[in-house]
Amino acid sequence: MPDLPQKKAGNTTRTDLLVALARRENLSIRDLYKRVAGARGHYQIIGTPKTLCDMMQQWVEEGAADGFNIMPPSFPTGLTDFVTLVIPELRRRGLFRSEYTGATLRHHLGLPMPRRRFQR
């Protein structure tokens, strides 16, 4: 990875992370592009529904994750594939709920209801 000119203004955090990754793993610019293009720089799991579930289950059981943000490569087909192929396997393993017990997000997260600010 060659040295890059310093930006005079603006946020460089993402750039700094990508340059550090390239240098740490001795990646060329092309290698770096191939690494980050598909998942927009995020960790990417590619495989069968079982492979995805295995990785997600391992991360949850080892305390590395307590939830996931899913970013399918295409919409709506990628999301549809995840919902119809991966979620049933996660449910079979007891890792994805099939119904909610409460009526609000606060309830699901175990948070108390705030006191009404303008209550009489």
List its salient traits:
single chain; 120 residues; mainly alpha; 2 domains; 5 helices; 0% strand
Topology as a string of helices (H) and strands (E): HHHHH
* Helical run tally: 5
Which structural class do you get from the secondary structure elements?
mainly alpha
Shape: extended
Total number of strands:
0
Instruction: Estimate the helix proportion, in percent.
Output: 40-55%
- Computed over alpha carbons, the radius of gyration is 20 Å
Strand content: under 5%
Question: How many domains in all?
Answer: 2
Largest sheet: none
Distance between the termini: 64 Å
Q: Low-confidence parts lasting 5 or more residues at pLDDT below 50?
A: none
Q: Mean pLDDT, as a whole number?
A: 86
